[in-house]
Design brief:
Layout (H helix, E strand, L loop, with lengths): L4 E4 L4 E4 L7 E6 L10 H19 L3 E6 L6 H10 L3 H18 L15 H13 L3 E3 L5 E3 L15 H8 L13 E6 L14 E3 L1 H13 L3 E7 L3 H16 L4 E7 L2 E3 L2 E2 L10 H7 L2 H9 L7 E2 L2 H18 L12 H11 L4 H19 L3 H17 L7 H6 L4 H19 L3 H13 L2 E6 L2 E6 L1
Parallel strand pairs: 3-4, 3-9, 9-10, 11-13
Antiparallel strand pairs: 1-2, 5-6, 6-7, 7-8, 11-12, 14-15
Bound molecules: adenosine monophosphate and zinc ion (ZN).
């Protein structure tokens, strides 16, 4: 079996995937903070890991996928205060919205979706252990901080120099901390904020300790893959690693994976900058699979530029693939082909989806080439295209459904009736009438195409 290689942000090189337990992969991806709708940048990161899960399963691995929910955070508290509603209402509403949006993008559900607030006892236990080992201390106000200088390897994931970090951190001098570099593990709560009892008084956890506690509870001291967007490398993942490894003395994760940003006008799409498009708004103007294609057709580590035009190009690309699959008879897929080998080689090479998709376009080309001379062979190529597409969660629609859009049956009947009227007009050489019907269809964004087997139509 050819090795699957994955780029490890820790070592900054591709490494063979060597499961800690035979044939088993434990993957933890940091989930969203549920205080607003997810944007397509978030969608891209989760779609990238959806491809990882699907491909590894397709190759026979037993993948356990954990994607947590951050349901306690300053942003949630502020949003609840602005809306004058309880934090729980904000969390419930945006968790439900996230599930809808992710289903729209065709994302598989994780096996576990732990919520931070369900793991408070585990977080407290971990913080107590850090204090016992002198990796953490309580400040005078009840906050607990991690002692960064005690962690010899601090900075190794983000490749930052601790002394340079120190000089940057001095700008924000917090008198409660022993050292400006130290980060918070437990925050003493202010009146009116959600809080939990702890050995250090009423308070709530810091963000980083959540993922250390949840991953340790669900996977143990070590697991195979840990992912998120690139902005999580520092400080979030650096801090997670420092926390967990301080108590386990073992490498927490075999391979750290990070997805590149979706950018808009050359800038990272983000809520705080205000340059974002939510998944649900994007899905008002394009089919879900088009957005999924946009998210996964570039390499997951590269940045990807969002524009309306980029979505149109994604639509055209998928249209080419579905057009190839249209009207093919059932046939067994070709086996042991160079196409499949190249698809696997591309995906084994750090999930190189652009190359994998180029194989799909070659297959589509073969289907077109063979269609008139050898329909059976064309159909065998088509079946392989669908099979490989399905491995990435693509090409699962019926070609007609994709090409004809999500139209209601009344509209579809009307289109078919117009096409028949046009054929009748043509048969009687009533060209003006035939052209007028074509124009009427065009006004409905319907393009028709006369082929040897009849007239076909699709949405523009
Ligand atoms: P958040 O809800 O901000 O915690 O983000 C959830 C996930 O989306 C994290 O893994 C982020 O790294 C990722 N993310 C945020 N913005 C973008 C973006 N513009 N492009 C790609 N991923 C992003
Ligand atoms: Zn995390």
């Amino acid at each position: 079996m050819m090795d699957i290689k994955i780029y490890n942000s820790l070592t900054q090189q591709e490494e063979p995937l060597r499961p800690l337990h035979p044939n088993k992969i434990n993957l933890y991806v940091c989930g969203p903070t549920v205080y607003d709708f997810c944007h397509i940048g978030n969608g891209r990161t989760y779609a990238a890991f959806d491809v990882v899960v699907r491909y590894l399963r397709w190759r026979g691995f037993d993948v356990t996928y954990v994607r947590n929910i951050t349901d306690i955070d300053d942003k949630i508290i502020n949003r609840a205060r602005d809306n004058q509603e309880p934090c729980q209402a904000v969390v419930d509403r945006f968790t439900a919205a996230m599930h809808d949006d992710f289903a729209g993008l065709g994302l598989l559900s994780p096996q576990h979706e732990p919520r931070a607030t369900e793991y408070i006892p585990q977080m407290i236990a971990l913080i107590e252990e850090l204090i016992q080992h002198d990796y953490a201390y309580m400040a005078t106000n009840g906050d607990v901080y991690y002692r960064v200088r005690k962690c010899a390897s601090y900075g190794c994931l983000s490749h930052r120099d601790i002394d340079q970090l120190e000089s940057g951190a001095r700008v924000d001098v917090n008198v409660l901390k022993d050292d400006p570099l130290d980060f918070v593990l437990w925050k003493s709560s202010k009146p009116g904020e959600p809080s939990w009892g702890s050995p250090w008084g009423e308070g709530r956890p810091g963000w980083h300790i959540e993922c250390s506690a949840m991953s340790k509870s669900l996977f143990g001291d070590q697991f195979d893959l840990h992912g998120g967007g690139k902005d999580l490398i520092f400080p979030h993942h650096e801090n997670e690693m420092a926390q967990t490894e301080a108590v386990t003395n073992k490498p927490m994760v075999s391979i750290w994976m990070h997805a590149g940003f979706v950018q808009m006008d050359q800038i990272k799409m983000s809520k705080s900058l205000g340059n974002f498009l939510t998944i649900r708004d994007a899905l008002k103007s394009c089919r879900p699979e088009v957005l999924r294609y946009f998210c996964i057709s570039s390499h997951y580590r590269s940045p990807v530029m969002y524009s309306a035009d980029a979505l149109k190009q994604s639509h055209s690309a998928l249209e080419r693939l579905y057009t190839a699959l249209r009207d093919l008879p059932d046939a067994p897929r070709l086996e042991n082909t160079d196409f499949e080998k190249r698809f696997i080689a591309a995906m084994n090479d750090d999930f190189n989806t652009p190359v994998a998709f180029s194989v799909f376009f070659e297959l589509a080309h073969e289907v077109h080439r063979l269609r008139s001379s050898d329909l059976e062979r064309a159909a065998q190529h088509g079946a392989l295209l669908k099979y490989l597409g399905n491995a990435l969660g693509m090409l699962e629609d019926k070609p007609d459904d994709f090409l004809q859009g999500a139209l209601d049956s009344v509209t579809i009947n009307k289109i078919n009736a117009l096409i028949e009227m046009r054929l009748a007009a043509r048969a009687q050489k009533h060209w003006a009438q035939s052209d007028a019907i074509r124009d009427e269809l065009a006004a409905m964004s319907i393009v028709i195409e006369d082929t040897a087997t009849g007239t076909q139509w699709k949405m523009q």
